[in-house]
Amino acid sequence: MTSAQRSPEQAREQGRSEYGVALFLGALGVLVVVQALLLPESRISRGPVGPGVVPLVVGGLLVVVAAFLAVDVARGGRGEPEGGEDVELGGGSDWRTIILLAAAFAANALLIESLGWVFSGAILFWGSAFALGSRHYVRDALIAFALSIGSFYLFALGLGTVLPPGVLRGIL
Hints:
By secondary structure, the chain is mainly alpha-helical. It is built from five helices and no strands. It is flat.
């Protein structure tokens, strides 16, 4: 449906949602700036660049982008609807997939301390693959464990951050 075929109600609704995005970006930018200004003075900063510079710049840019977006919407600018041959524009949300993905993330969050990253990460990876339609249960489980063990050691050796070992404490 082109913009010429849109009803006035649809155009007004889209304008309100785009103002909502501009408001969200502006509020997020203000929050980032305020939090950056509240950072305590760092003893390790050398020179004029401290830990608050990057958040100040990012927050300021968010506010600027929000202002430009609001001005563009006020002048009649509208985002183009998504188009493409593989997108069904009239289709609804796949709530089953969304709920399964949310359950995999929730299981990871609830089990990471007790079971450890290797098992909770494997549940997350396997559950995500299942939610997205894969039905190769054994292969997906092997890949999920390989990913979780690999990411455990990547964090430990590459970043110096130890993920919770859980039941595998002393083994990993």
